[in-house]
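FORM 12-B: Structure-to-Sequence Request
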């Protein structure tokens, strides 16, 4: 199984969340957004500087900083 961090996901591509490698308030916020293992997530677009990026998960568009996205492990969605 090929794993990436979410910040590597290119616009127009989808993946499945496998693990959150962060803790504390950031982890809690990501979980409250519905970013739990097994969730399908797709990259909508990135800011010109790369952070933040917009993602679509569970019927909502969300913006995540690249530092936080780097802590979310995903596998490609076929």
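FORM 12-B RESPONSE
SEQUENCE OUT:
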């Amino acid at each position: 199984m090929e794993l990436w961090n979410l910040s590597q996901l290119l616009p127009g591509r989808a993946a499945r969340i496998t693990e959150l490698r962060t803790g504390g308030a950031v982890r809690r916020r990501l979980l409250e957004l519905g970013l739990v293992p097994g969730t399908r997530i797709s990259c909508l677009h990135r800011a010109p500087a790369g952070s933040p990026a917009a993602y679509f998960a569970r019927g909502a568009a969300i913006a995540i900083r690249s530092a936080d996205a780097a802590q979310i492990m995903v596998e490609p969605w076929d």
